[in-house]
Amino acid sequence: MAKKAQESAQIERARKKIEKQLLASEKQFNAESLRRMRELIENQLKRQSPTRVSLKTRQIVLFDENQHPAQTESRFVKHLLDKIKEGTSKKRPLKKVIKL
Fold first, then answer.
1. Coil, strand, or helix at residue 63?
2. pLDDT digits over 2-49, tens only?
3. Within this chain, do residues 78 and 99 fall inside the same structural domain, yes or no?
4. What does the alpha-carbon distance between residue 100 and residue 93 come to, in Å, rounded to a whole number?
5. Same domain for 36 and 66?
6. Statement to judge: residues 38 and 12 lie in one domain
7. CB 49 within 8 Å of CB 59
8. Looking at the 3D structure of the chain, how many domains does it have?
């Protein structure tokens, strides 16, 4: 059975530093901190509930039988898609790089 090579001082310091960071992060994850985070998320959901769109009452259409993507409503996104389709670079058109 082969013996392990002895750690250099630099490797030993780095290992101890990482172990110390792991212990510090493990201390942050305890029952109390998880409970506080759960309460924070629940409060944010309650606060934002009046502005949330109910998906049960609204029909969402993203694809027409998975053949074509839905039309984008954002002008910025449409502009980017047009640039990709045209190919903005003369050296290497984006259309050849990005498969749509």
1. strand
2. 677 888 999 999 999 999 999 998 888 888 888 999 999 999 999 988
3. yes
4. 13
5. no
6. yes
7. no
8. 2
